[in-house]
């Protein structure tokens, strides 16, 4: 089982490495104002690449909760709570030509109304028999 710190760092890497594709405003039309608001994490799961019915619900397993406040200029504050202990970090989403800048082509961000979904297919997770290829999926809902 991955440690709490590793899970937290994985999530932060997903945020920092986010790229945009296929969103309700149209490809290449996403801007900082589209993300403005307070977002509560409603799902954080790992899905086995070998068997999509094998998943790990990180919110449940680790007692994890996250709230992200994104400002109109793209800056954000992320508050993560793990088993009652809170951590806060901040950063800046970068946009270019209507997409979130990213060095990782395996991570996508989709925005559909008040649902923000981040997914990366280039990760691994220990489902009980050692690390194996997996997809990490995080879903946030705007308040």
What's the short story on this structure?
By secondary structure, the chain is of the alpha+beta class. It contains three helices and ten strands; from the N terminus they run H-H-E-E-H-E-E-E-E-E-E-E-E.
Protein model, in words:
- With 143 residues, this protein is of the alpha+beta class.
- The protein has one domain (4-142): Lipocalin (Beta Barrel).
- It contains 3 helices and 10 strands, in the order ααββαββββββββ.
- Strands 1, 2, 3, 4, 5, 8, 9 and 10 form an 8-stranded antiparallel sheet that branches. It has a two-stranded antiparallel sheet with strand order 6-7.
- The longest helix has 13 residues, at 4-16.
Strand content: over 45%
Distance between the termini: 32 Å
So what's the CATH class?
Mainly Beta
Q: What profile does the largest beta sheet have?
A: 8 strands, antiparallel
Low-confidence stretches: 1-5, 16-27
């Amino acid at each position: 089982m991955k440690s709490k710190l590793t899970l937290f760092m994985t999530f932060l890497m997903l945020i920092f490495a986010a790229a945009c594709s296929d969103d309700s405003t149209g490809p290449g039309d996403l801007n900082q104002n589209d993300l403005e608001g307070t977002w509560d994490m409603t799902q954080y799961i790992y899905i086995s690449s070998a068997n999509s019915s094998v998943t790990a619900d990180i919110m449940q397993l680790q007692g994890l909760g996250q709230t992200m406040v994104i400002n109109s200029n793209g800056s954000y504050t992320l508050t993560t709570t793990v088993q009652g202990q809170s951590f806060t970090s901040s950063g800046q989403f970068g946009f270019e030509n209507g997409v979130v800048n990213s060095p990782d082509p395996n991570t996508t961000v989709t925005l559909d109304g008040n649902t923000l979904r981040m997914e990366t297919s280039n990760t691994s997770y220990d489902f009980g028999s050692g690390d194996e290829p997996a997809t990490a999926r995080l879903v946030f809902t705007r308040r």
